[in-house]
Amino acid sequence: MNHKNALTPWLFIGPAVLLLIAFSLLPILVSLLISFTDMNLIGLRNWDMVSFVGIENFIALFQDPLFRRSIFNTLVYVSIGVPLVIVCSLAVALLLNYMTNKLFTFFRVLFYVPSITNIVAIAVVWGFLYNMDVGLFNYVLNTLGLGSVPWLEHPFIAKISLIILAVWKGIGINMLIYLAALQSIPKSFYEAADMDGANKFQKLRYITIPSLSYATFFVTVTTLIGWLQFFEEPFVMTGGGPLDGTMSMALFIYESGFQYNDFGYAAAGSLVLFIFIIVATLVQFTFNKSKEN
Amino acid sequence: MKFKKSLAMFAGVSVLAAAGCGNDGDANGGNGDEQGGDGEAVTLDVWAMGEEGNALESFVEDFESEHDNIEVNVQAIPWDNAHENLLTAVASGNGPDVLQLGTTWVAEFAGAGAFLDLSEYEDEYDVISNDDFFEGALDTTVYNDGVYGVPWYVDTRVLFYRADILEEHGFSEPPQNWDEMLEVSRELADRGDGMYGYDIDQNDQLVPPIFAWQNGWEFNEEEAEENFADPAFREAMAYYHTFFDEELVQVTEGVPIEQGFEEGSKPMFSSGPWMVNILRDSAPDIDGDWDVAMLPGSERNASAIGGSHLSVFAETEHVEESLEFISYMSQPETQVEWFKETNTLPARQSAWDDEELQEDEKLAVFGDQLEEASAPPVLDQWENIAQDLLSSLERINRGGADLDEELDEFQQQAARRLN
Asked: Are A177 and A97 in contact (CB under 8 A)?
């Protein structure tokens, strides 16, 4: 009976582990291998044509101005976008948590809708909003007597425009996580604080935010990983332009792999991105641990 | 106990499901029926892209009634997914029998051995390398001395212009050459703020080569990157830059061209045959106020030829039937029918003798332009080079980079790509 029990946990995790191995671990290992080869479309069909090139791909990558540019752009996206998503979704969650009547439920849906809207539809609408000549944003600015902003036409401003779009799109899901966490904070904490005469700000500062620390950690980790892989927005809105100002690492990898069929090069790029993500995540885990201690 | 048993079964089923997923790919879009052979019915899998894919389904019924033993199974693939689907087909060796292939994709896929070299069937099927096809279209079927497709339909870019606006400014004829083009553009751009003379799509890979061809440039494979040192090429790029430098065209995104054309803020642009119907549908108010003409040139009125070929997938088991189908699609009569169905231009010159094609004046311009249309070189690296050139030109037009320095750099980059 005993050894049968020992088998039970394996059976429980078995399916998940198998799926993970087949669809995550193996592909990662394969792409690791490919990144040291000159695999291209011809090689894909005829494996004799593939040869190991050592770290040549990686050397070429770091000499490629476009790749360096894409790293810089990705870091800009992450360092502005991630804090913004966290602050905005926390703020929205706090505000929506004040009451539970119909209006608030409606707004909850409203904030969540962008997360589940098709990116192509978003791209069409926001493309018009951002249009320099006929877009709504510039129209409003012009009627207020302000000049036009080159939303998608200037390499740096285009980055900011994409960040605004991505934040708008990213708030929904994180807001939901925060709302769930907010509702799990025991009421007794607030009752105790009331008895001690704490004001609203003190309750927020000393009860709510500390109680949300795990949710914040989760949101930070997932958002950071998501933003390091920033892809859809530049892919559908700008194609990496103008002047490569919105080219992200993920878009660079996609283009090398699927537009130019340079699979070895693309795999090397994705390995670099993978390392970025692992390092960023590890840093956060260590940071979180030291905070807990 | 019972619980554990069912749990074990559940785990087993999941494993099977996972394994099943792996096999699924093989079953999908396979090579059709395995038997084939003479007399027996054969299912021919055909991949067609975009609008053509949707129209082809019903169009092939005539072919099927002529050939009792062949059943055509058309799969319509959206253009956005086409490249990835082809990649998957090449990688797995599981593809259709016949497929539609954009003229610019020949080099990369033929280089990978994805298609059958049709030159060995030339004697049996006269559509292969038939010189009734437009020369520019045939050029893009050839890669490394092999023939990897039969032209299906073609397209080319011509000049769309607002005859009424040009008339107002004293131009009774559309510009015929580069000097006239600049003159008209300057005059029209002078009309005020937000007014432009011409429109250039900065993301269109074919635009820079078109300018170069117009200046007498030709890409010579043996000369590799030296092609881009040719004064004819450099001059053409300088001419291209003039439009941006003098703000004769809009650098930023702006309104969609249909709208700009209708409003008159962009009274000239170059585009393909599809634009004729788009303009008729979306801007009926200016019907009759606009016309098409051959692109102005300096040495010759060159344009680019595009379109699609039909190719046979290398792994097919139905070579004969595939070629039979392609022959049918490439007959002048079929091409005329296909034109009436989809408005795509016939690749065979003799199809243009049809009355309906003859009578349409706008169409005749496309016919004339096709005779002066060149094709981009069939090279693996061309896609990269064309994109590099667009990036360089963007740096010149938007980033204020020096024309000569930037083009020198582009030439060095091309050297690395080609060697």
From this structure: no
CA atoms within 13 A on the CB side of A73: 33
Domain edge (last residue) among B333, B349, B370? B370
The helix or strand, by DSSP H or E, that contains position B164, with its residue range, turns out to be: helix B163-168
Whether residue A223 lies inside any domain: the answer is yes
CATH of the domain at B199: 3.40.190.10
Q: Which residue range(s) make up the domain with B168? A: 158-299+377-418
User: Rounded to 10 degrees, what is the CA torsion of A42, A43, A46, A48?
Assistant: 130
B91 CB within 8 Å of a chain A CB:
yes
* DSSP state, residue B156: E
Q: Is residue B12 part of a domain?
A: no
State residue B144's pLDDT score. Answer: 85
Nearest to A243 among B111, B387, B398 (CB): B398
Helical packing angle, B207-214 and B382-397, nearest 10°: 90
* B1 domain-assigned: no
Of B335, B355, B370, the one marking the end of a domain is B370
In-domain check, residue A72: yes
The answer to the question of residue A265 being in a domain is yes
The predicted pLDDT at position B363 comes to 86
pLDDT for residue B39: 56
Q: How many domains does chain B have?
A: 2
What average pLDDT does the structure give for chain B? 83
pLDDT value of position A83: 94
User: What is the sign, positive or negative, of the torsion defined by CA atoms of A236, A242, A248, A252?
Assistant: positive
pLDDT tens for each residue of B225-257? 888 989 999 999 999 999 999 889 988 877 888
Query: Cβ contact (<8 Å) for B91 and A45?
Result: yes
Same domain, B404 and B280: yes
Q: Rounded to an integer, what distance in angstroms lies between the CA atom of residue B347 and that of residue B150?
A: 9
Q: Which chain A residues are Cβ-neighbours of B8 within 8 angstroms?
A: 11
d(CA A115, CA A211): 26
Instruction: Using 70 as the pLDDT threshold, list the residues of chain A that sit under it.
Output: 1-4, 293
* Band of residue B11 on the pLDDT scale cut at 50, 70, 90: very low
| Chain centre distance of CA B169 | 35
Same domain, B148 and B193: no
Are B45 and B91 in the same domain? Answer: yes
Alpha-carbon gap: A158 to the closest alpha carbon of chain B (Å): 12
Q: What are the residues whose beta carbons fall under 8 Å from the beta carbon of A229, sequence distance 6 or more?
A: A249, A250, A273, A277
- CB proximity B194 to A under 8 Å: yes
Q: Is B188 inside a domain boundary? A: yes
| pLDDT (tens digit per residue) in B288-327 | 889 999 999 888 899 999 888 989 998 888 888 888 888 8
ipTM of the complex: 0.75
Single-letter amino acid code for the residue at A55: I
DSSP string of A240-251, one letter each residue: T-STTTT--HHH
Q: What is the CATH number of the domain that holds A87?
A: 1.10.3720.10
Tally of structural domains, chain A: 1
End-to-end Cα separation, chain B, in angstroms: 68
Question: Lowest mean pLDDT: which of A226-230, B35-39, B117-121, B359-363?
Answer: B35-39
- Judged by a CB distance cut-off of 8 A, whether residue B87 touches chain A is yes
Q: Is B119 touching A (CB cutoff 8 A)?
A: no
CA distance A50 to chain B (A): 12
Find the mean pLDDT for residues B273-302.
Answer: 88
Domain that holds residue A86: 60-292
Find the helix or strand (DSSP H, E) in which B271 lies: strand B268-271
Same-domain status, B251 and B384: yes
Q: From CA A107, how far away is CA A142, in angstroms rounded? A: 30
Tell me which of B7 and B147 has the higher pLDDT: B147
* Contacts with A242 from chain B: Cβ below 8 Å: 394, 398
> Which residues of chain A make contact with B203, given a CB cutoff of 8 A?
239, 241
Q: Identify whether B19 is part of a domain.
A: no
